[in-house]
Amino acid sequence: MSPIDSKPILPGSTIGVLGSGQLGRMFAIAARRMGYRVHTLSPDEDTPTGQVADVEINAPYDDLDAVRQFAKTVSVVTFEFENVPAATAAAAAEHTLVRPSGRVLHTTQHRLREKTFLSQAGFPVTPFRRVSSFDELVSAATALGLPAILKSADFGYDGKGQYRIRSESDFQAAWQAVGQREAILEAFVDYACEISVVGARSVRGEFLHYSAAENRHANGILDISIAPARVPDSVAREAAELTHSVLEKLEVVGVLCVEFFVRKDGQLLINELAPRPHNSGHFTFDANLTSQFEQQLRAVCGLPLGAVDQLAPAAMANLLGDLWRDGEPDWPAALQVPNVKLHLYGKLEPRPGRKMGHLTALAHSTDQALEAVEFARSSLQAKRVPQMATQ
Ligand code: AMP
């Protein structure tokens, strides 16, 4: 039976989520709202997803017996975390549907495979080279020129992910930073801004996308997303078309986010893919008729996709553990801004750099939404809350 002929997975069924962070939590909230049950599997306990799910299984991803057992109890397995081993997806697929497929996961969980796939398929990407030894790093840097960024090929290496190489004197430190293992060297892109598009593709190949979000990072972590992105329509349109092509080419059933660099001449380069809802799409939870999480649910259950209309311009600000440095943030202060919504992920330990929650503001314009969300976030730590007119 082809997936297209298969019956939709109806409310009342159980969905399995591999991974247990905030993406799974927001997915589980959407799924429960529509009457589904949710089981989650990850190596952790009392997790953001587990707190909302019906069942939380605590097992390492490479415990394939646990994964098989988990798969037997659910109608479909999806992901909130793409770095699960290929063998895990394969073990789940022995017993149930896996959406998106293990093949999508395999391509997107490895920077080198991902960039190679994209460039071979003709998508615009940053010039890059494979690096598997120190000598190859030196010759790749000679070929690409400096500055350049060295990134570990796989994502799962304790944050020892990336190193910006400014001059030859950085080679040793960069090679250490990626753990002296397979890596990818990318030319440094002097971009005007970064944007991302979250797209969804159904079992029948129907495609929908959200408006491009404009993303600002701080210390390599997403800080603020503004939607719609303040880029020319032609750039946003092209980003959406490229996103559609990527989902088609990978035959994604589910949700996938494409992150882009926008060069000063308006040219787009794909930086990275994430085969799941994305932090830059969190605004859709409050701002769109159907959130990225409900869309993932609909897609993986073989249901029609929901309308993606955005109800108002939006801005999202992440709340990192650093905000807890001087004690519990002043939640009522942020909530004094009435067009701001608070999301907290139920994480018990607020470590610096850890994503603990986010704020989303809706307003008449993106500039007003940005102002409101930044104001709300700054007031979390303010002793006295200044007055501000909203909207
Ligand atoms: P990544 O983990 O690849 O998404 O990179 C994290 C952030 O580092 C990106 O969002 C950019 O801000 C920056 N970055 C990554 N690769 C490049 C590049 N080739 N040129 C310039 N900035 C980059």
Description:
The protein is of the alpha+beta class and 391 residues long. It is 29% helix and 26% strand. It contains twelve helices and 18 strands. Strands 10, 11, 12, 13, 14, 15, 16, 17 and 18 form a nine-stranded antiparallel sheet that branches. A five-stranded parallel sheet has the order 3-2-1-4-5, with helices on both faces. The protein has a four-stranded antiparallel sheet with strand order 6-9-7-8, sandwiched between helices. Strand 4, helix 3 and strand 5 form a beta-alpha-beta unit. Helix 3 runs antiparallel to helix 4. It is globular. The termini are far apart. The mean pLDDT is 94. The structure holds adenosine monophosphate. Adenosine monophosphate binds next to strand 7 and strand 15.
Short structural summary:
It is built from 12 helices and 18 strands. The chain is α+β, with helices and mostly antiparallel strands and 391 residues long.
Q: What key attributes describe this structure?
A:
391 residues; 9-stranded antiparallel beta sheet; 5-stranded parallel beta sheet; 29% helix; 26% strand; binds adenosine monophosphate
SSE topology:
Elements (H helix, E strand, L loop, with lengths): L13 E5 L3 H12 L3 E6 L12 E4 L5 H9 L3 E4 L6 H8 L3 E2 L3 H7 L2 H10 L7 E4 L2 H11 L3 E5 L9 E4 L5 H7 L5 E5 L3 E11 L5 E3 L3 E6 L2 E7 L5 H18 L3 E10 L4 E7 L9 H4 L4 H9 L13 E7 L10 H5 L4 E5 L10 E8 L3 H14 L12
Parallel strand pairs: 1-2, 1-4, 2-3, 4-5
Antiparallel strand pairs: 6-9, 7-8, 7-9, 10-11, 10-12, 10-14, 12-13, 13-16, 14-15, 16-18, 17-18
Helix pairs in contact: 1-10, 2-3, 3-4
The protein binds adenosine monophosphate.
